[in-house]
Structures are given as structure tokens and as C-alpha cells.
Amino acid sequence: MRGHRAAASRPSRVRARSAAIAAFVVLAAMVPAVASAAGTQEVDAELPYVCTLPSGRQPAEVRVSAAFPDRMEAGEAISPTDVTTTVELPAEAVADLTALKATTAQAATRLTLGVAQNESAAEATWRGTAEPVALPKSGPLTLTATGDVPSVTGRSDGDLTFSAGNLAVDLALGTADGAATDPSSLTVDCSPAEDTPEKGLLATVQVGTETAEPSGSPSSSGSSPGTPDPSSGTPDAPEDRQGDRAPKAAENPPGAAADRDAPPCLYDDEHPPTPASLNAYVTGYTDVKKLDAASLLPPSCMLIEQGNPVDGPPDPDHLVFDTVSSADFHYEGRKETPPFESTFLAFGFTPVKATMVLKQTGPVTIHSRITMRLSDFRTTTDTYVRALLTLQVTDLEVNGTPLDVGAGCRTEKSLTSLEPDPSNHPGDHLVLYGRGEQDLGMPATGYLLLSGGVLSGEATVPAFTGCGAGGENLDRLLTASVSGPGNQIKQVQGQTCSIANPVFGDEFNAPQCTSDLQPHVIPVPER
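The structure corresponding to this sequence follows.
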């Protein structure tokens, strides 16, 4: 069975199979989003932590940045934005990893947040993923992770506080020759140091009136009733009332749109499905570094062929499986996105409007490795997506004047990323990464092919070529405006529809397919 069912209705074997597969997302292009609204507080906190490494407990620095609103109304849900967690591990950590013959490391972070209001408290988990980095020859190792965070709802008037707590850093390790380290991954557990300023307080958001009402406080689905406020010495409220009064932190960021504002996503006679066929919509944002803005890729259809797991490298403590799947864009029979319009300010003052398409110029592969710990059957799935994609401009307007870009205006090569395994995957291509996790008998979290989720990465946009007609060369204008490195990506894939085993929804399962076998879920892009 390839369809994804609700966790309560699936045997553990199917849960493990679900955790074994990862997913595909693609780069967002150039549609700037609205800047942060007034009334926000920018947080950038540097906090001392202590981390447990193979060599022992070592001091570390953790920097947390995010944007919070200044105030909110009781019952209103808020989600901090622009969340980044940067971990600086000491030189001793580098020595530990080098001893495992690792040359690169990629981090996935899990930061526990204490959310408190008046006499009650809850917990939320901020998850992030980082780009792979080469281990330094000397000095500390810096890992910067970004990701989605759950919303939080204050249930009554009174200050709502957010405090940083324990941090877990999951490291996927790589070697210079592409071989696996032993072990292939390592989890570093960190906790705030005793001298952490203000007990890790990051932000205070005013809820309702300035004077707190004694009966009010925050709440969390996934909250911990009876948990004391980590940033104060306030005693617990009685357990029979605490759950109703604590702030509510959603377990996951928002997911699916209710309408069908997306192009068709169907297999047809020219693209017949196989027993391994899935389809899904992808959308997302990317930063455009040169423009100091964020950009949107509207929902686009992907046709996916799910691979079969094969044995991975031997590991005495884990079962390891590798899976290679493939995917293609699908728009009107072509391997590309729908055309989308972008408007931005070039050089900070010149309005430029362009219509663009992302075109697939080679194979898209999805490499997934599932690692199941034999002691408790906890699984993690690390996924690398590699895609050959060029950006084509079909129409251009500068300061209100249409310019003829011709029929071949595009980036001169594929969008590119740092490749963690260049010996096995040479050449210019985009790389995105995601991690899924699952405890036995519990729903999976993070990124999986069947249920969807977020992948992230960083791309370099190459120079443009072939732009201009009638003797006018526009290559330099587009290259100077957009091309360059350091463009962060966050992509969202919706729940897949399994063509061979469609799920139309019932009292136990949410719908995954429409009646004509299109993906039911249209994902919402997340900042």
C-alpha cells in the first residue's frame, strides 16, 4: 500500500514505510512579497548553552532571531516569522566529527520554547534545517537553520512570554569520498547554561489590555499542562484548570488551502500512471538577496515515481534503507511551471515586471535515507532533492515600457547549490534538504513524501543569456538585478495522491485525492 492513512488506523509496518520515503519541492522564482508590517519586534538573542558531545559537555553559543508582533488580542493566533537558529559548536565538536572521518555536516534543529501567560505555561517546538557545511580545519563549527514554527494563541489578557529551552541538533554527516561515517548521524543535546540572561526570555507580547486578568494565560496543542513557566518562579495552577487556561501552540504550521486555485494535476494518455505513481502540488518562497525581498512560486503540479527501498550501509544499531525516486513538473504536457508574473524594484528604484517560467532541463532525483534505531524503532528520514532547472523570462516591462526579450531569454545554466556529495553528483544543479522523524506508534513529523512538508536550501541564480531582440541586449540588466548567490529557499509540498491506492476520505482519514485523481491538498506557501 502506498497511500498515506491516519496514524491511528495504520499498522506499525505501514508507519515505518511512510517514514522511509521523502519528497520533492522546487525553487520559488522572483515575486517579492510584502515586507514586515509595522508593530513588530525584531528579536536577535545570543544565549549561552551547554552541549553534550562525544568528548563530553562543552559550552556553545546559540543565537535565535525572529519577528514577533508587539501585541495581540485574546484568542488570536500568532506565528513568529523569519525564525533562524544559529548554533556555534566549539572546536572540540569539530574534532569529534573529524574523528568519525566526517568532512561535512548538515543540521536539523529542534528548539523547545516555553510559552507562558500569567500562572500557566505550555511548550512549542521550533524546527529548522540548515545547508550542509564543510567542517573547518580549526575553530568552531557554525550551523544556521531556518524553518516553520507553530502558531500560539493567548487565551486571555496578560503578557505572553516566549523563552528558549532545550535544543537538539541532529547532524547528518558526510565524507570526502561520499562513503558513510560510522555512525552516519549524530544528535547533540544542548541545554541553557545556568547563567543564561533572563532565563532565555526572547520576547514578550502584550495580549489585550495592559493589565493582566488573574484568570487568564496561554495554551498549546501539544502543550504540557502543569508545566511551570521556564522564565519565572510562578507556581503551577491546578491541573484541572491549567489545560483550559494555558496558551495554545499549534503542533504544525498551517497546511492546505480550501479552494482549487491551482492548475490541473492529472496523469493522462501521454503520461500514464504506474503502480508507483504519485502526484502533488508544490509552492513556496525564496529570498532574493539582491532585492532584499521574498519571492513566491504559485502552486505547481509534480508527477512523482516512488522508488523502492534498498539496503543502506551496515549499522549495528540501526536498520538503514536508501530510496531513489524521480519527479517531473507537469504543465500542459510540458516539464515546467505555469507562467507567473513578478514585479520588483531593480537597484532599489526602477520598477520591473516580468513573466517567467521554471523549466526542467534534466532529471529530478529524490535521494532518501531512512534510519531506524533498533532500541526503540525511532526513525529519521534524510532527503536530498537534486534538480536541473533554468529560469526563462518570456515578457519584460521596465518602468512601464515593454521590452522585447525574445524567445530565448533564460539563465545560462541551471540554478545551483552547494552539493554535499560532489563525487557522486557532479555538475550544476539545485539541492534541497529535509528531514522527517517518527516514533513508533506516533504520527510522523517533518518532511515525508506521502504526507508532504517543508524542504529548504540555498541557490545561486546564474547570469542571464539570450535576452533581447532587435539589437537590444538585456542580459546585463537581468543579471545585475537578480543573479547571484545566497538565495534562501523554503518550499512546501502538499499531501500526495496515490494513483494506485487513492484515499477519498472517510470518518478515519482525511481526503488525499479528488474524484478524478488529482491531489486534494493545495499547499499554502509559508514564510
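Residues 447 and 453 are 5 Å apart (CA to CA).
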